[in-house]
């Protein structure tokens, strides 16, 4: 019932907010786009857009098409890439997304090894958090992702979707970062429940969710006073006594920037599992499986000094 061009049309209207914008993006005239939309609405017997001022927004039916279209268009893009690779039409470029601390530690070691083993492959690196990376991976905008998920030691950890391939790179410890003069600096491990009255500094979206979950498990809501996605800024804020925060081993290995900041384990122990992810449909594409193997194998060579 629905053709690829229908998904493309609805996606373009959603992103541009107008029929004229969709027409420009798709390379059609506005009357052609209007006619295509009217034909689709007659076919489905329901309106797909409505006007709010000068903006076109999707109706509930239009939103259903857009939501399912993400997976459809992602599959089409992955199929195109795979066919081009098989036909030798691409230059061996692979698009990799990574969160910042992995990009500063794991990725350089892996790409250096990949260059030695497969000099014909080129990797474009994009910095993204796990949520962004998985969304772009499923849309076919990137080929592989390095993501991190927080959980308590002993839990099962993240569960992949059936059409995804996940490879564990490492399980890294999560530490509490405190000023050297803080009372917690005198102990090796601190119960999370004892930190309910602290002023907290939150990190990236995944880091923040990890903090909220750990605090909820300990029976409190953290008093978050500051937010920053920059793990170097986190350390500097702790270093001047503005609060405490959670940092992972990779964040500390990437940059320990303040000698007034010390790191202590929290109980129950929290873990961030770092994984490399590709879509199952990509495992036959030359270069992507090699990149995945190299990332996992190279992790053992990443220097992780004890905090």
TrEMBL record:
GO cellular component term of the entry, any: protein-DNA complex
Membrane-crossing segments per the record: none
Pfam family membership, one: HTH_1
Superkingdom, natural source: Bacteria
Residues of the HTH lysR-type domain: 2-59
Record GO terms (molecular function): DNA binding; DNA-binding transcription factor activity
UniProt keywords, alphabetically: DNA-binding, Transcription, Transcription regulation
InterPro entries in UniProt: LysR_HTH_N, LysR_subst-bd, WH-like_DNA-bd_sf, WH_DNA-bd_sf
Family: Belongs to the LysR transcriptional regulatory family.
PANTHER family for this protein: LYSR SUBSTRATE-BINDING (PTHR30346:SF29), TRANSCRIPTIONAL DUAL REGULATOR HCAR-RELATED (PTHR30346)
Record protein name field: HTH lysR-type domain-containing protein
Lineage per the UniProt record: Bacteria, Bacillati, Actinomycetota, Actinomycetes, Actinomycetales
């Amino acid at each position: 019932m629905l053709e690829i061009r229908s998904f493309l049309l609805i996606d373009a209207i959603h992103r541009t907010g107008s029929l004229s914008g969709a027409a420009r993006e798709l390379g059609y005239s506005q009357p052609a786009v209007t006619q295509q939309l009217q034909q689709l609405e007659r076919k489905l017997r329901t309106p797909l857009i409505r006007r709010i001022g000068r903006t076109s927004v999707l109706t509930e039916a239009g939103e259903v098409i857009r939501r399912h279209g993400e997976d459809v268009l992602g599959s089409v893009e992955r199929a195109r890439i795979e066919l081009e690779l098989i036909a030798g039409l691409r230059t061996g470029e692979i698009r990799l997304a990574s969160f910042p601390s992995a990009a500063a530690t794991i990725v350089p070691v892996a790409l250096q090894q990949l260059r030695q083993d497969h000099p014909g492959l080129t990797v474009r690196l994009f910095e993204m958090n796990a949520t962004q990376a998985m969304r772009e991976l499923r849309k076919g905008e990137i080929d592989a992702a390095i993501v991190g998920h927080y959980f308590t030691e002993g839990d099962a950890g993240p569960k992949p979707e059936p059409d995804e391939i996940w490879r564990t790179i490492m399980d890294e410890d999560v530490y509490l970062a405190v000023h050297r003069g803080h009372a917690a600096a005198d102990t090796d491990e601190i119960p999370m429940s004892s930190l309910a009255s602290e002023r907290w500094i939150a990190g990236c979206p995944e880091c923040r969710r990890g903090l909220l979950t750990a605090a909820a498990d300990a029976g409190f809501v953290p008093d978050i006073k500051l937010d920053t996605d920059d793990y170097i800024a986190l350390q500097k804020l702790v270093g001047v006594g503005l609060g405490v925060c959670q940092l992972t081993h990779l964040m500390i290995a990437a940059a320990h920037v303040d000698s007034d900041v010390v790191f202590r384990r929290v109980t129950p122990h929290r873990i961030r599992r770092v994984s490399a992810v590709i879509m199952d449909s990509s495992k036959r594409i030359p270069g992507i499986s090699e990149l995945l193997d190299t990332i996992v194998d190279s992790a053992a060579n990443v220097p992780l000094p004890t905090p």
